[in-house]
Write a structure and sequence with these properties.
heterotrimer; A alpha/beta; B mainly alpha; C mainly alpha; A: alpha/beta; Rossmann fold; 2 domains; about 40% helix; globular; B: mainly alpha; two-stranded antiparallel sheet; about 0% strand
């Protein structure tokens, strides 16, 4: 009986595999975090990508498109397994993901060594931008450091003498603080790495209060950011300027609400950016998902457009990997953020802005562009990448 | 009777053996890799069943050994040593030493206190791995490739690696069967049923339990070696308490104290996870109630159900 | 390292401690009296937080929300007891572990389906918002003081309940020797239900109280559950007094260790190594504490069973 059961289960797996052999149909696998406290980031990316596919009539590059969504659960080995399923069983042409850098480290190799291209809609670690850059890896977001550099530059330009830094203890957190320090030359009075997914920051806030800095820089994505921002205001620290990356954005603002108003962020885009394609995108996204899109959604939407443009430029031939790659490099589409190119290392070349949290007239909270901090900014690791154009 | 009892393990191993031969797996290598994963976790679950099912020692830190085995591969590879003939002994020895040290302390306690103290050691190992900044810290590290066997890169092929894992599973299973049916195994089982009596008739249970704990940890270290090779990635995530919990769930789901159950449980757990999550993002909404129903209506897990259906007696 | 910081961190540690106590009190009694391993206890905490968030949003007032959330959490606990847990009391611990693990998976996913994956938030009640100056240079959020005060009050109440009342006496007797209590003619089923419902409500109360400072999100109870088990094991299963002392110990060791560990290490090591080791050691501290306690007292500090 059990034997029969086992065979049935194995048979079901085999069946799923053999049904995946259609031709000239585009398959895109999306691997993002959809469970746990950070699920909302993955949902934004998934929704942004789906919206683009929907608006293009279910076709990317003119080909019928099947989107397969999997949850990496923020566990690297689970992600590797799911990604192997996407490239080996489902034979996807593109893998879009992930959200988190540690998952990127795990899935990069299985994807770039397969037949598929890996397109990251969020995570952009330094190692893959520099010496380990790969011709099958593209990024529609940024190199992690860049967003943080925006705040470091801002702190420097505004003349803050003493800065306090806080970030979670994982690679993106370390990249973050390195990015801030690249342009900030003042004194760093404190530097704290908290365990990933820590939710109570009372111990850290007490240290900030004791250090009395001129400004605080924080990198706390997802639920961590919700807690940090609210506790920061509750602790009566809101008079110290709060510079942050991925801590106050459209994924966290619905929970942070008034507590975040006036706080600063760094970004390559904000929902109120003025260009026709963006205005249409924000309107459509809000109508479809009843929430304000953040950079996660924007970058995934751009990832879909990037794939669309690459397939068109390759004449719809999915088998011609070189033509697809050339198309991806060309990035011939209207990005929601206007100015957008793909650099030598597959990472974007784009503008960066200081943004600030506002309450919109309709009562919803969003980030709003304040000033441009960098133009046509190339990440600092690109020079170590040996790929040629 | 004995023959009937062997039907189940034989059919399990037969299924594993013929699977790669079924059909053309050129493009469907994924099934191989998923079943490879099932077998790796089956090794870990069998090793846990050795102490959990036969010794009634509920270790809530068993994933630590998975991590130790994996880090043996990762750290040695990072220093250019990719030879399995060095990595495997290193994985096993470090696992055994960790088991000896933590077991000697943990076995002073009983019941829930044992569960929690093994959790504590598991967590310490986890946080230690997180702090290894030179080896990727939280992020873990990507391996340059699979381990070499006497200089040859034979495990690189999914099929070769599949059979390697399969061989390990058979070896571990056979070793465990020998252990549990030996005199030593009978003492361990006696300690489970009535520790006072065993002490009274002159057995030093501590020494016996420590030995079986070290054996279980060492075998799980082997699973860790294989897991690192399969994913070609090593990370502290292999040793979280959730992972230890999942191993316990695999053993319980399959049925305690039969070794076969551990393999079935690992297979059911991973294949259900894979199958359900393919159909719905909310797969845990179905998997959770399934576990509850197994407990309420199928005493003894899948093996319990199997025994009732076939009328085979107590397989313990 | 300033003295003010030490005071603030002590308060923070105290706050984590009473929070752990609120959850641990129910867990240790359920375990001690019914010999039932309830991994789903952390989920009760999460449910409490979600109910508080929902009712606060509906009524527009945290206290109305709390007043509605508590009976709902109690009701939910009793429903779980009636439909599932009741059938597991006679089973061995491992069956209970498997079933309650299944319940965790189910409910974590269910709250995501019902309330969405995005974290929810609850505003701090108006009269308790802001911070107070406790002493020169020491500013502390009022709501956290409220959490500490209400936690301590409940601890006191529980202490009186357990030591001075008839039901408390039965509970203590049950924790020491449940079959004997049953043999003496006490309706043990009813006692179990009361203890279980009460424990669920306390965990729900803890969830509701932290909703204004922590984001309310799926799986928020999982890590806390492990800490809670650490607490009841250090304290000794079935002992309210043990749970209270252990909860404060764990809260203080965790908070103070995280903030002062690196600076203490700096006395022995060079700064970079101290920061590195401190970061590695701080999260291990409570587990080291637990291992050490169990090494010297294998049944915890105040074991209830004789």
């Amino acid at each position: 009986m059990i034997k029969a059961k086992l065979f049935v289960t194995l048979g079901a797996v085999a069946l799923m595999a053999s049904s995946a052999a259609a031709q000239e149909k585009l398959k895109v696998g999306i691997v993002v975090t959809l469970s746990g406290p950070s699920a909302v980031l993955g949902q934004q990316a998934r929704d942004g990508f789906n919206l683009a596919v929907k608006q293009l009539g279910g076709k990317l590059g003119g080909l019928d498109t099947e989107v397969i969504i999997v949850d990496d659960e923020l566990k690297p080995d689970v992600a590797v397994n799911k990604v192997k399923g996407l490239v080996e069983r489902d034979q996807v042409n593109f893998v879009v993901g992930p959200i988190f850098s540690n998952v990127l480290q795990a899935i990069h190799k299985p994807v770039v060594e397969s037949n598929a291209f890996l397109i990251s809609p969020n995570a952009g670690t330094s190692n893959f931008a520099g010496p380990q850059c790969n011709p099958n890896f593209f990024v529609t977001s940024y190199q992690n450091d860049q967003v943080h550099e925006v705040l470091g530059k801002t702190a420097q330009d505004k003349g803050y003498k003493r800065l306090f830094l806080i970030a979670p203890n994982y690679q993106a957190g370390k990249d973050s603080l390195a990015g801030v320090k690249r342009h900030y030359k003042g004194e760093v009075v404190g530097e704290i790495y908290t365990p990933l997914n820590q939710l109570d920051f009372s111990a850290e806030l007490a240290q900030i209060a004791a250090a009395k800095p001129d400004a605080v820089f924080a990198f706390m994505p997802g639920g961590m950011g919700v807690n940090l921002v609210r506790q920061y205001r509750q602790a009566g620290l809101a008079n110290i300027p709060f510079l942050s990356a991925f801590t106050v954005d459209e994924s966290t603002l619905p929970a942070q609400k008034e507590a975040a108003v006036g706080f600063f962020g760094g970004a390559n885009w904000a929902p109120d950016m003025k260009n026709p394609q963006n205005e249409a995108f924000v309107k459509a996204y809000e109508a479809a998902y009843n929430s304000v899109p953040g950079t996660y959604a924007m970058q995934a939407y751009d990832a879909a457009l990037l794939i669309d443009s690459a397939i068109k430029s390759a004449g719809g031939k999915l088998s011609d990997k070189n033509a697809l790659r050339a198309g991806l490099k060309k990035a011939d589409f209207k990005s929601l953020r206007g100015n957008f190119k793909i650099g030598v290392n597959g990472y974007p070349v784009q503008d960066f802005y200081l943004v600030q949290v506002v309450q919109r007239p309709d009562g919803k909270f969003a980030t709003s562009l304040r000033e441009k901090v960098f133009s046509d900014y190339v990440d600092v690791y690109a020079k170590d990448c040996k790929l040629t154009n | 009777m004995i023959m009937r009892r062997e039907i189940l393990p034989l059919s399990i191993f037969l299924a594993f053996a013929v699977l790669p031969l079924l059909g053309n797996f050129g493009s469907d290598a994924f099934i191989l890799s998923i079943v490879t994963r099932v077998m790796i976790f089956a090794i870990a679950a069998v090793s846990l069943d050795l102490i959990l099912g036969y010794g009634a020692l509920v270790s809530f830190g068993h994933a630590a050994f998975l991590g130790i085995g994996a880090y043996a591969v990762g750290i040695l590879s990072a220093h250019g040593i990719r030879e399995a003939a060095i990595q495997i002994p290193a994985a096993l020895i470090v696992s055994a030493l960790f088991a000896l040290l933590t077991g000697a302390i943990s076995l002073r306690t009983k019941g829930i206190y044992f569960i929690m103290i093994t959790l504590a050691f598991g967590q310490m190992a986890y946080f230690f791995a997180v702090s290894l900044a030179a080896y990727g810290g939280d992020d873990g590290m990507t391996l340059p490739g699979r381990s070499l066997f006497f200089g040859y890169d034979i495990a690189q092929s999914e099929r070769a690696f599949y059979f390697l894992v399969f061989a390990c599973l058979i070896a571990v299973y056979a070793a465990c069967r020998m252990i549990v049916t030996s005199r030593f195994g009978r003492v361990i089982r006696g300690a489970r049923e009535n520790p006072q009596r065993m002490e009274a008739i002159g057995f030093s249970l501590f020494a016996y339990q420590l030995t079986i704990y070290v054996i279980a940890g060492t075998l799980c270290g082997l699973a860790g070696f294989l897991l690192a090779n399969q994913t070609q990635f090593v990370s502290p995530a292999y040793m979280t308490w959730q992972r230890s919990g999942e191993l316990i769930v695999m053993v319980l789901l399959g049925g305690l104290g039969s070794l076969n159950g551990a393999i079935l449980g690992a297979a059911a757990f991973l294949l259900l996870e894979e199958g359900l999550s393919h159909f719905t993002e909310y797969w845990k909404l179905y998997f959770g109630p399934f576990l509850v129903l197994v407990v309420l209506f199928a005493r003894g897990g899948l093996m319990g159900g199997f025994k009732r259906l076939t009328g085979t007696g107590d397989g313990r | 390292m300033s003295l003010t910081l030490l005071y603030v961190q002590t308060l923070n540690g105290l706050q984590l401690g009473v929070l752990l106590f609120l959850i641990a009190a129910g867990l240790t009694l359920v375990f001690g009296v019914m010999d039932f391993v309830n991994l789903a206890h952390g989920v009760q905490y999460m449910i409490g937080a979600y109910l508080a968030a929902m009712f606060t949003a509906l009524t527009g007032n945290f206290f109305f929300g709390l007043a509605l959330a508590l009976p709902s959490a109690l009701l939910f606990g009793l429903l779980l007891e009636f439909f599932i847990f009741r059938h597991l009391y006679a089973r061995d611990h491992l069956d209970q572990v498997l079933a309650t693990f299944g319940i965790i998976l189910t409910l974590n996913q269910a709250v995501k389906v019902i309330w969405g994956a995005a974290p929810l938030s609850v505003p701090i009640p108006e009269i308790f918002s802001g911070s107070v100056v406790l002493m020169p240079g020491l500013l502390y959020p009022v709501w956290r003081l409220v959490i500490i005060a209400s936690g301590l009050a409940i601890a006191l109440l529980l202490g009186i309940l357990v030591t001075k009342t008839r039901i408390g006496m039965l509970v203590r007797a049950g924790a020491t020797n449940a079959p004997m209590v049953s043999a003496l003619g006490v309706d043990i089923g009813r006692l179990f239900m009361i203890v279980f419902g009460f424990g669920a409500m306390l965990a729900g109360f803890a969830g509701a109280m932290v909703a204004p400072i922590l984001s309310v999100e799926p799986g928020m109870g999982d890590n806390l559950l492990i800490l809670t088990f650490v607490v009841i094991v250090i304290g000794g299963i079935g002992s309210i007094r043990g749970a209270f002392i252990a909860a404060l110990m764990v809260g203080l060791v965790d908070t103070l260790g995280r903030s002062f560990g690196p600076s203490i290490l700096r006395a022995f090591l060079d700064p970079a190594a101290a920061a590195q080791t401190g970061r590695a050691l701080a999260p291990m501290l409570i587990y080291i504490l637990m291992a050490a306690v169990l090494f010297f007292r294998p049944a915890g500090l105040f074991p209830a069973k004789k």
